[in-house]
Amino acid sequence: MVRNDQPLLDVRGLSVAFRTRGHEQLSAVQELSVSIDPGGSLALVGESGSGKSVSMRALLGLLPANAVVGGSARWSGEGDVPGGTELIGLAPRAFRAIRGRQIGMVFQNAMQALNPTIPLKRQLTEHLRWHGSCTRAEAEVRAVRALGDVGIPDPERRIRMYPFQLSGGMRQRAMIAMAMVADPRLLIADEPTTAVDVTVQKQILDLLIDLRDRGTAIIMVTHDLGVARYLCEDVAVLYSGQVMESARLVDAVEDPRHPYTRGLIGSALELGDDSPLRPIGGNPPDLADRPAGCAFQPRCTAADGERCAEVQPLVRLADAREVRCWRSSHE
Amino acid sequence: MQLVVFLLRRLVRLVLSLLVVSMLTFGLLSLAPGSFGGIQAAGAGSTGLASGRTVDLTSQVQQRYGEDVPVWEQYGNWLGPAITGDLGYSYKYPESTVGALIADKLPVSLALALIAMGLALVVAIPIGILAATRRNSAWDHGSMFVVTTATAFPTYLAGILLVLIFCSWLHWLPTGGWAGPKYALLPVLALAIAPAGIMARYVRSSVLEVLREEYVVAAVAKGGSWGVVMRRHVLRNALMPLVTVAGPLLAGLVVGTIFIETIFGVPGIGGLFTQAAQVRDMPLLMGTTLTFALLLMLMNLLVDLSYAVLDPRTRSGLGLSVDPAHRSEDTTGAILEEVKP
Known about the structure:
The complex is a heterodimer. By secondary structure, chain A is α/β, with parallel strands linked by helices.
């Protein structure tokens, strides 16, 4: 049995770099440490290029061959392995038993993540068969049920369709069904609401909440704090491959300690709120040309030359929050 | 219904194209100096008749072959029966109709082209897949170098080199003739080299493209092994577009046999065409040329159709059922535009 004090997934010091032709390695993720408890919910928030998707793909070994992954990610979803299974560098065969079966993944764009030339039925059942957990008939029953669970009407009929025959919202749900049909303990949702329109967004989020309430742990990758707030307990704010702030989501939204978190909240659009948007000026740094010291410093409104030019450690504050800014421990 | 409209439209276009091809061929052949009658008469003249009578004889022979009237009239005389399917009698083989000659020789060329295509596919697909999956490896660079060289190799040069190697030096195979599988080996090889090269490169780039697709990552994320993901998700989608190249290449192979059949003495339609061209056998030239044109056009049509059937998206666009029980919701004629060349 999993001991209660052991996180389901414990990521420590994860780093990802890409070997490039001619250049040295480009670092995409640096020293990422996050953890999620069984049934927990964590949001990874940041602008595009902040390393949130890359780090999640690194966990499942889905990055291309030129990626160099370091650090540790302990998976304790199997139950009987003391201390958990180390995912980084895991052998392919052992990895296959975890991918899809124990950790499911939902991708941003269902149109691209579903194979256009294979009917849904096969895409929803094939991994059940790969994992050898059931017969063909059972797999089909489960797949139909999964489609029904995600709110697709008439699943017996729809399961025989090709992805292009479904509407965008239904495709997105079908993809969630594809991840959920194997009943994973952890669902990694990579921007699951970005490619769909607002009404569908709400439905997808409700679906994920429903899953969370039934005990599936969820890591949600998003650039939208508002979306994250809807679903997640905890948040890690990423910038340029580093965690800038990690906290309980409520705390981070109500009392952001890092200037970047404040910037994200200020630039979020909310209905009924007439206060003007305050977008963060400038752009995230090029991976090959990070500023020395604090990576956010060039865009930071609270920057102070001398202190910010130093490398900022992730400092643990009293209320179990972690912030990568010297100001946070001085305020 | 949409399929019927599509086929009808293509059929009309095909007939019009054939008409234009026949006009151009007839016109160009008439513009070129020399004619069957002229050649016959000159041949007779050189065998001893007094030179003074040659002109007289020439006009007699030309009259016999209908070459004494203006070109458009000649064309009209040919076209009238041709429309009803009667291509007339060959001048060189007066006892056979052009249709019978083609029906007799075409199967040989088709068989040769089909076997060569089969061989090319069997070689090209594994090479392309291996090169793509081991991108930038020694195998990738090595095989692509060989394959690119093969692509640039004209069939006639390949044919002559093969004869040189296997017949003159090694004495393993006959240099020509047509009496059993042994005789087909070198022609097939010579024909297969270039298309194999072209298709191997195509397969490589196509597999590389599909490997970058998100659904491949998604399949791995579901726990698929490399082999399973490759078979079920990559290859199917990567090899489907190969049809678009393989079809025209096959038609090209039938035409390409013109050189090969001459080099190896294969009794196919290519040889027939060469003989007809040598003596300006007008009906036979028209017949063989139009056969080549028709083959090319039919192959293109077949490619479009098979592509439509292979891809469920175009399949529903053509009004063909994607699933017997359930029709798609967005069956639009617009998808038809996709299958147009």
